[in-house]
Amino acid sequence: MPKHPHLSNPSIGLGCMNLSHAYGTPLSEDAGIEALQAAFEMGYRHFDTATLYGAGKNELLVGKALHDRRNEFFLASKCGMEMVDGKRVINGRPENLRRQCENSLKRLQTDHIDLYYLHRMDPDVPIEESVGALGDLVKEGKIGAIGLSEVSAEIVKRAHRESPLTALQTEYSLWTRNPEIAVLATTKALDITFVAFSPVARGYLCGELTNVAELEANDIRKTMPRFSAENYPKNMDLLQDFLLMAKDIGCTPAQLALAWTRMKGEHIVPIPGTRSISHMRDNLSAGTLTLDQKQMTALGEMINQGKAFGTRYNAAAQADVSTEEFA
Question: Which Pfam families does the record cross-reference, listed alphabetically (predicted)?
């Protein structure tokens, strides 16, 4: 499978996290396998998972669902962050990354991972040390390429000098514009694919989540200021013109959000995540939706970092990322 610049064809990938992690009660194994196999059959060829998701269960799920199709799709996973005794732990030491890679290969039922990200930078380990270890895994054929997640442009440059990066993954959508500060330009200049996670704003831009009180207690959005009982109704008010534009264009709100993200740069690949097979199909078809410059500009002015109510992360989650922040 191609590694660069678009990682796979079609240009929209599938974030697999939702099936096992962070959004309330996970799907059963049978339902998760059914969803992943349906995604493959409808045309997805880029599947993104991680050691962290479901404490390894998401990788197991992807392995069980797709191992017999392994040479037909692009597989991405992540290391450096895992669940230990029920707590999320960041550890970017070389010996730990190697251990996690070996375990990921077993869970995924494969002898290589096409793209392996450092999920979060370990503040106690120089980025060059972590990326150097991933470079060794490339030389050994265990991974095909190196990626980083949620880091600044300066970290990208440092890492890229140590060992060439193929991708950078960071949250990017109409209401999360941090990559526009520096990372989008840096990745483009260095010929690094920018992989946009949460491109439909964790469901907000789909327009279907109208009442955050309906979220399960263990839904990650419960910890996010934009989804608070105080802020979310204000954000829903902000969404109304967006929903009208989608209706006027004749697409779903999710498709409109994905088209905007995809068209913000030729090197951008969105990876929306969902548990719904119908939503998977809906998202994938956004790869053919084209917006004109007037529509792109209107959308950018309609919903943006300055207009959204609340920050994207709470203080604890924000401490784990090194992305540039707006003043």
Answer: Aldo_ket_red
Our answer to whether residue 53 is catalytic in this structure is yes
Residue 319 lies in a domain: no
CA distance 27 to 30: 8
The per-residue b/e assignment along 112-131, b for 16 or more CB within 10 angstroms, e otherwise, is: bbbbbbbbbbbeebebeebb
Six-digit token pair at 180?
């526009």
66: containing domain: 14-203+254-291
What is the number of helices (H) and of strands (E) in the chain? Answer: 11, 10
What is the domain count for the chain? 1
CATH of the domain at 87: 3.20.20.100
The identity of residue 17, as a single letter, is M
Question: Of the residues 23, 53, 116, 204, which is catalytic?
Answer: 53
pLDDT in tens, 239-295: 999 999 999 999 999 999 999 999 999 999 999 999 999 999 999 999 999 999 999
Q: How far apart are the first and last CA of the chain?
A: 40
- How many whole angstroms from its chain centre is CA 90? 18
pTM: 0.96
**Please, which residues bridge with residue 167 across strands?**
147, 193
